[in-house]
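Chapter summary example: a protein plus heme C.
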Amino acid sequence: MREPTLLGRTAARAALPWFTALIAAAQLGCEGANGGAPPSKAELGELLFHDPNLSKERTQSCATCHAPEAVFTDPRPLEGGIAAASIGDDGQSLGDRNAPSAMYAAFIPPLSRGSRARFHTDPEISLYEGYLGGVFLDGRARDLAEQAGGPPLNPVEMGMPSEEAVVARLLEDAEYPSMFRALYGEGVFDDAKVAYAAMSDAIAAFERTEAFSPFDSRYDRSLLSKSDPAHYEYPEGSPAARGRDLFFSTEATSCSACHLMHQSDGPDRARELFSSYEYHNLGLPENQTLRRLNGAKTDLGLGGVLDDPTQNGKFRVGTLRNVALTGPYMHNGVFQNLSTVILFYEHAKKRARGESDASQNPETGESWAEPEVDENLSTAELSRGSEDLSRAENLLALECFLVSLTDARYESALPPSLVARCGL
Ligand code: HEC
Ligand code: HEC
């Protein structure tokens, strides 16, 4: 049964996804009962997020490529069944990057350059110096609001010709004009730039709501006090428990160097984002299947945005929250399975150490392809780790720990056989 959602305003609208009711119930509280209360920016943002009228052919909304039921990623398969990149509103244009989840994106800091102390005992990699943060995988938007203004005007996404054209669509709507005026002032439509910025601001407000960042995976629940009814205990000796120890170990693996924002035993550990928001070139291969479809050229990542060759091939570290359900992986969706990502790190370690490696990419059945951008590799970090990740026991353990980062709402979407194998 669907609860009435946003102050009854959406009742007249086409049914929004099940997720809407959930957010509304969580956020509105008693305000929801008051039909006369002004809407919040987040509520307006939610309507905009789901509104295909913001795209040229009216076929696409943010939710098309960031579907709530698919952890806010794009579930649509491309030719051959892969889902590495997104088809735009024209039904043809194909991007070159894998749509990341919009979940936890609210925590990405603005792009900056500086240094950060890592919680790492190895002095050679205990300090990171370089770029940090920025929204999009190459950091080109400062924050969520600037990001939200991008897709409507992106020719391979929502394809609108100008800010004015988008604002004209807002004005066509029966409800937006009064909602915008109530929230952003009577004169908000006098200037298309102001109205466009208000739209982006409302979408960002929606993305900053708790529904996008619940912090309630098994890992989070394991940090609650034992007396809390929601407390979760990793079963002792289970693959998932072992994977957690491998992941956090600065000896056994390199993961914690790049994927930890907070000290693992510090006060902020309950809000761990599993990304440091640093930039690295891991030496990933080109996604040849995708390039055959879209004909795109080398993706320089941060180096392309800054026009700085010393940053070529670098992409922002992704969060690992909900990662078990957000495949394919990496900025170009080159790997379909999490186990392939882990095996790739083992390969990258050997390469960084200058050791020969006869291992294969299990998805191609061939030896690992050369890096798409063979410069600026994060050799120091990638060479670390005493454990062989391709050993079956280690591979399963790390995958299982990543599975345990799935938020409660999505746990039922995990394959039950995997959950059982992990001992979760
Ligand atoms: C056609 C598919 C498509 C549409 C429509 C779309 N996005 Fe995206 N989104 C992507 C892709 C692909 C990326 C990664 C692009 C990149 O890094 O260059 C992305 C990146 C993002 C990010 C950055 C996440 C991160 O980790 O940096 C956010 C947030 C986001 N989109 C929100 C939105 C919002 C809000 C809308 C609607 C205004 C929207 N998207 C519309 C495909 C889409
Ligand atoms: C040198 C820093 C670094 C180290 C060390 C590292 N990662 Fe990553 N990780 C990254 C970056 C950067 C990305 C995004 C790369 C891209 O998209 O091009 C990433 C992406 C991932 C992804 C895919 C996320 C997604 O949504 O596509 C997974 C899974 C992952 N890492 C797991 C691990 C594990 C497990 C380890 C330890 C074995 C590890 N990483 C070690 C920097 C690192």
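Key point: The CA atoms of residues 135 and 141 lie 5 Å apart.
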